[in-house]
Amino acid sequence: MNTPLDDQGGPLSGLRILELGHFIAAPFCTRVLADLGADVIKVEPPGRGDPVRSWGIIPEGETASVWWSVHGRNKRSITADLKKPEGIALVKRLIAEVDAVVENFKPGQLASWGLGPRDMTAVNPDVIVVQVSGYGQTGPGHNRAAFGVIGEAVGGLRHLTGYPPEVSELPPVRTGISIGDSVAGLYGAIGLLAALFEKGKGRGTPGRRIDVALTESILSLLEGCLPEYGATGAVRQPTGSTLPTNAPSNAYPTADGRWFLIAANSNALFRRLCGAMGRPELADDPRYADNPSRVKHAAELDAAISHWTTGLTLDEVAAQVEAADVPCSRIYDIADIAADPQFLDRGMVRRVADPRLGEVLHPGVVPAMTGGPAGGVRWAGPDVGAHTDEVLAELLGMAPDEIDALKKEGVL
């Protein structure tokens, strides 16, 4: 678990990205790419930086949250005031030196400042531009404001999270994180890598733009919901802790007041579960002969499984179901994750030295890769503008007195 900062490169070493992002979606996209070795240069407003620096728990005496340690990791932070002509001019010079730009401003905002995709390709015809927004860059609703939670609502996910109306009148629940932003960020990374592959094959299109919408990113996750509606008119409804497509797959109560997840939704798995329960006859019951039959009679089946689990503690249920090699688990909280031997062995829980906070726990890099440098955590989220002098000197050849003059003018 005591993993030092990993200063080796990764498969994306040599890729340089300029991040004109704030809050979550674009910064998450670039963090994924930076973890894999890309050189991400994050442009932040002078002084305050990205607003997300103030999100989450902020230790006493600090001005940035613990989350920032992860959210900004592996990136170089520079400052530039995009509301000043000098700041725009500086960023255009940087665009000429990078492979891609990732942004998530409201559609048209950067263009109004002179930093739209056409302005970018004017200074760098080969630059790939990734744009993440609520509804996309086109269409009648493209200029509507949105955050991840709006993408989750419009994309159909929020409708499915919760219990049926007859069970609870509470509103559909959130997932507990801004999953809409993160999913859109991942699609942004996929789009950027696809464009790079295209370019590497000599088929690159000058001015290639990647247009990612929060709403569409979530919609793409909804499995069979859309084709089912198109074919039958059926509107999938929330089903609590179950899914309407397979059974048994649910959270079951235990004698010590806890919940245990069991997913025995193939015929072979179901038969093994029945053996673990001491109810082998259930596997031969016509009501449970195959998955469609089990789904049809899921309520009765869940009642039978719950009757068994409520007579045992969580540990006792776990021992018997695991021995039967049926997918199962207690529900982890973050403390469970931090102590989990599997996560620890694979480096998914890492101790990282943060200059502000001391030792901080970070999630590892996904995906794990073999056969060469796989990326890693090279440094924690930096202070606002920590790399301004370094980047401007390295990429633009600016002298210290030039940089200092821009700082005095409030440009940096």
What is the H-and-E element order? EHEHEHEHHEHHHEHHEEHHHHEHHEEHH
Q: Helix segment count?
A: 18
Our estimate of the beta-strand percent is: 5-15%
Structural class: alpha/beta
Question: Sheet bearing the most strands, described?
Answer: 6 strands, parallel
Helix content: 25-40%
Q: Label the CATH architecture of the largest domain.
A: 3-Layer(aba) Sandwich
With strands numbered from the N-terminus, the spatial order across the biggest sheet is: 3-2-1-4-5-6
Question: Regions with pLDDT < 50 over 5+ consecutive residues?
Answer: 1-5
Q: What's the gist of this structure?
A:
With 412 residues, the chain is an alpha/beta fold.
Q: Features of this protein?
A:
formyl-coa transferase, domain 3; 18 helices; three-stranded antiparallel β-sheet; 412 residues; six-stranded parallel β-sheet; single chain; alpha/beta; 2 domains; Rossmann fold
Describe this structure in words.
Residues 1-5 have low confidence and may be disordered. The protein is 37% helix and 14% strand. It contains 18 helices and eleven strands. It is α/β, with parallel strands linked by helices and 412 residues long. The longest helix is centred in the middle third of the chain and has 22 residues, at 179-200. It is elongated and about 80 Å long. A hairpin with a 5-residue loop joins strand 7 and strand 8 (259-263). A six-stranded parallel β-sheet has the order 3-2-1-4-5-6, with helices on both faces. It has a three-stranded antiparallel β-sheet with strand order 7-8-9, with helices on one face. A two-stranded antiparallel ribbon has the order 10-11. Keywords: Transferase. One of its GO terms (molecular function) is CoA-transferase activity. It comes from Thalassobaculum litoreum DSM 18839.
